[in-house]
Design a protein that fits this description.
Strand order of the largest sheet: 2-1-3
Shape: globular
Structural class: mainly alpha
Radius of gyration: 14 Å
Oligomer: single chain
Mean pLDDT: 86
């Protein structure tokens, strides 16, 4: 039996786990969205600040579905 290196299986599983069809699916894992570290919500009201801050997760999610960050502010699916 051939064993794959742990890093190869973890990377593949990790990348696939951030494939979100829409914001409803993303909110199951990240209630208020996910964004790059240092991102600021574009809004005329109270900005969302309690989103998950992770540039790597954000990039993986956006690479799969760019529509998750429709306003292009660096935060995918921000929600109050």
């Amino acid at each position: 039996m051939l064993a794959l290196p742990l890093a190869a299986t973890t990377t593949t599983a990790d990348a696939a786990s951030y494939h979100y069809k829409n914001c409803t699916k993303l909110h199951k894992d990240f209630k208020h969205g996910v964004g790059k570290k240092g991102a600021k919500d574009k809004t005329s009201g109270t900005p969302v600040t309690n989103f998950k801050k992770s540039t790597s997760i954000y990039k993986k999610a956006i690479a799969y579905n760019k529509r998750l960050d429709a306003d292009k502010d660096g935060i995918a699916c921000e929600k109050r």
